[in-house]
Amino acid sequence: MTTAQNETQRTRTYSWEDQTIGAKVGATLSGMEYLQGIMAGLYPPPAIAHTLDMALESVEEGKAVFSIVPQEFHYNPIGGVHGGVFCTMLDSALACAIHSTLQAGTGYTTLELKVNFIRPLTIRTGKVLPIGTLIHAGRSTATAEGKIVDEQGKLYAHATTTCMLFPWK
């Protein structure tokens, strides 16, 4: 490694909890109970939340709000938050909006995610809020819409999703 590389090298270390704990208990609770338990610290948040340094701020039936402060480790090679980070933030918010309405024993997975990028996120943006809102919950599928806004309400992206619902075993 050259001297220039040593001067620009960054390191990030983080840890996460055993993900099998949440998977086991999550199947026995309603979506709302499980998400509220994560917020209260009763169950570990998903490891991806630690990876991205993202937090579930609030949840109510049919709505989930996360928060994240864009960091340099979120960047793509040209100096903005990578599109995959946008997608993960929105997938999390939209899916949790759906999850908040599910009965105990019901699982889900994303079938489709459509994201529209409006403007870039950078470390200068500050805290942003990925917000998901339920559109429809049926027997086998559910849909939600969402957006990423800053604390002043400025829009950075918006999305829709369809999730498949199934009995959790």
Automatic annotation (TrEMBL):
It comes from the Bacteria. Keywords: Hydrolase. Gene3D superfamilies: Hotdog Thioesterase (3.10.129.10). GO terms for cellular component: cytosol. GO terms for molecular function: 1,4-dihydroxy-2-naphthoyl-CoA thioesterase activity. The keyword Aminoacyl-tRNA synthetase does not apply. CDD domains: PaaI_thioesterase (cd03443). The keyword NADP does not apply. Residues 79-156 form the Thioesterase domain. NCBIfam families: unchar_dom_1. This is PaaI family thioesterase. It comes from Spirosoma foliorum.
